[in-house]
Amino acid sequence: MAEMGEMIRGAHVLLFSKDADADRAFVQNVLQFRAVDAGHGWLIFALPPSEMAVHPADVQDGTGVPELQASLYLMCSDIRAFIKSMEAKEVVCSSIATERWGLRTSMRLPSGGELGVYQPTHPTAI
User: Fold this and answer.
1) Which of 33, 117, 45, 28 shows the shortest CA–CA distance to 81?
2) Are 94 and 110 contacting, i.e. CB atoms less than 8 angstroms apart?
3) Which of 51, 61, 82, 115 could cysteine-pair with 125, CB 3.0–4.6 Å?
């Protein structure tokens, strides 16, 4: 019998946007992620290999049960090269912040939302 880790074949991340069409165009045209059309122009993007970490949370929803929350960061191998490539596409990234786990920046999507990008300095699972 296959172990659970072998049965799960992927993850599907949802980003909720105030301007989904503009952010989809950004992901397709600027980040150049491959996509399939699930029908009626609804794009589903292929993500690069991913990893997941479970962090402690103190937030509760009033029921006494901690809420499950998620944050999405794209990982890169060279944060400075990434920022330079975004600048060439007229995408502004924040200043590089040094964290204990890596070098971090963020970029503003057309909707106004921000997407984090980091160069890990910790061992990765991928």
Assistant:
1) 117
2) no
3) 51
- Supply the DSSP string of the chain, one letter for each residue: ---HHHH----------TTHHHHHHHHHHTS---EEE-STT-EEEPPPP----------B-SSSSBPP----EEE-S-HHHHHHHHHHTT--BPPPEEETTEEEEEEE-TTS-EEEEEEE-S----
Number of residues written out for the chain:
126
Of 118, 115, 120, nearest to 27 (Cα)? Answer: 115
pLDDT (tens digit per residue) in 29-59:
999 999 999 998 889 999 999 999 988 877 6
